[in-house]
Amino acid sequence: MPDGVLFAFALTLAAGLSTVLGAGFALGRRPISNAYLSGALGFSAGVMIYVSFVELVPSGLDLIGRTHDERGAAWLATGAFFLGVAIIAVIDRMVPGHANPHEVPATEHEAAAHEARALMRMGTLMALAIGIHNVPEGFATFVAALQEPEIGIPVAAAIAIHNIPEGIAVAIPIRRATGSRATALRWAVLAAMAEPAGAVVGYLLLAPFLTPLIMGIVLAAVAGIMVFISLDELLPTAEAYGHHHFAIYGLLAGMAVMALSLLLFV
Fold first, then answer.
1. For the whole model, what pTM was predicted?
2. Considering 66, 75, 98, 190, which has the largest number of Cβ atoms within 10 A of its Cβ?
């Protein structure tokens, strides 16, 4: 297997395992404050939005431009961006509202108000929902890293950061329902493994067709996916935790960190 493929898979695996890192935070002794969650979700959104518009879309446009004129490349890149938006929107609609990990914040305070059976059902549904979300994210990370490391590393960082709160969302209700850290951690691991699974399936099915044109379209579509996740899931959830300014400060901090990380590759 080529070194580039191994590197891309390693980045994807690391991004997926950050879900487990989030679960580890949730399973610690100290409760995680709502202010912290608002800031973390805002930070993740800032990372993803900045990477999408500053790196992924221009890179996709450049790749498409190798086989098309400027006007044709612009139309294809724009269409691919909104195709990504449509794909993740359909996936999001397939997840029941009560199970979507971003539409229903899972905090220990809220979990305490439900019976153990309801909490366990919530946690397992969240794990399944996050797994559905992680499959296209895994392929997105893998393809970006396969194209160029300087693209793949920021994308993997963005995905990893936004996977941390998802791990928290899985672990908190299951831990409250079962009283078992090990059970909560197992469910988080299952959700995390959807990320590398998406990379493997996507690579095996699409590797023969990854021309510059296809790569450019995929990168632009990935940008659409990431922007949708940020605007539809991360920022509304950050606001729902009741700390508007922490969410905005996190958003701007995420953009600044990604800007710095990209400048390091210039």
1. 0.65
2. 190
Read off the pLDDT of residues 114-139 as tens digits, 9 standing for 90 and up. 446 666 765 676 677 677 667 777 88
DSSP string, 179-236: --HHHHHHHHHHHHTHHHHHHHHHHHHHGGG--HHHHHHHHHHHHHHHHHHIIIIIHH
* Triad 55, 57, 58: Cα angle to 5°: 65
Q: Over the stretch 23-66, which tens digit does the pLDDT of each residue have?
A: 887 677 566 677 877 887 788 788 889 888 998 899 899 999 99
DSSP 68: S
CA separation for the pair 98, 69 (Å, rounded): 46
Where in the chain are the domains?
Answer: 3-261
DSSP string, 82-151: HHHHHHHHHHHHHS-TTT-TTTS---HHHHTTS-HHHHHHHHHHHHHHHHHHHHHHHHHHHHHHHH-HHH
* Residue of 157, 153, 137 lying closest to 145 (CA atoms): 153
